[in-house]
Write a structure and sequence with these properties.
heterodimer; A: 181 residues; mainly alpha; 86% helix; elongated; B: 97 residues; alpha+beta; Alpha-Beta Plaits; 3 helices; 24% helix; flat
């Protein structure tokens, strides 16, 4: 799937980011808000915000890194690399990484929001939407864990466990916010 | 200009693309029959290589452009052979000693 190690890292980190952001929103506020459309809209706003911040953040940071690397290479080669395949490749890589960094948190946060949209459209009750949103979120966490396991070429239970602990942690914190505040 | 049958180039290049990729690209250029790329000196990020090309009609312009596009630079043209057949450089008495 993703062959570039930096892209893989971004993908895992940011999908996790997206999922946990929405889990926090759903567990911390959905029951109080109790209106599926409001939950969906709030979540969508947050998803778009992390997508855009991911895209631009990665774009700027990666461009700086690539520029520095090319300049370093030019210093050692004693000639300019402008217009070469190396330059073009670096540009493409920056864009690819920015896309991964923007799209992965968006997907991670948008998918668990879909049940609320379905609930608004009358396909699901609010309770079912709430539960299936959390189930979807945990499913994504499981898949991330398995994906990391596959990258490590080891049994994935360790990484799955860590991701699920992350999910449970946000679950506990979210419920605390819901109950105490 | 007569047909160039052999070229030996002294080239500095980044480690990427590798000499395998570079040789593959150069061998596909029309008029080239065979390519040899040897590493002369390997540094941390760059390497100096010697490219030896043979063919019925080497296209030096295209070859140089391709080398440049891959981020490498020709530092010197060390040998060239043109004409009906390839003539190797003669070993003079001085060299033989």
């Amino acid at each position: 799937m993703l062959t570039d190690p930096i892209a893989r890292r971004y993908f895992v980190m940011n999908t996790f980011d997206g999922v946990l952001t929405v889990m926090g929103l759903v567990l911390g506020g959905a029951l109080t808000i109790a209106d599926p459309l409001t939950v969906f809209k709030t979540g969508l706003g947050a998803s778009l915000a992390i997508a855009i911040s991911g895209f631009f953040g990665a774009y700027m940071a990666e461009q700086a890194e690539q520029t520095a690397e090319i300049k370093n290479l030019e210093r050692q080669l004693l000639h300019s690399l402008k217009g070469t395949d190396i330059h073009k490749k670096a540009k493409k890589k920056v864009l690819m990484l920015a896309m991964v960094d923007g799209i992965s948190p968006f997907l991670g946060s948008f998918l668990p929001l879909l049940p609320f949209l379905l609930s608004h459209l009358g396909f699901l009750s609010f309770g079912v939407a709430f539960v299936s949103s959390l189930a979807l979120a945990f499913l994504i966490l499981l898949m991330l864990g398995f994906y990391l396991g596959k990258i490590m070429n080891e049994r994935p239970w360790k990484s799955v466990l860590v991701f699920v602990i992350g999910g449970v942690l946000i679950g506990v914190l979210g419920s605390l916010i819901e109950r105490l505040l | 200009m007569g047909n160039i049958r052999k070229l030996v180039l002294d080239v500095a290049k980044p480690l990427e693309p590798t000499i395998i990729e570079m040789a593959a690209v150069l061998s596909k250029i029309e008029g080239t029959a065979g390519v040899n790329v040897s590493v002369i000196e390997l540094d941390r990020k760059v390497e100096n290589i010697r490219i030896t090309l043979k063919g019925p009609q080497l296209d030096s312009e295209k070859l140089f452009r391709a080398i440049k596009r891959m981020g490498a630079a020709v530092h010197s043209i060390d040998e060239v052979a043109t004409g009906e057949e390839i003539v190797d450089h003669a070993r003079t008495l001085e060299i033989r000693k």
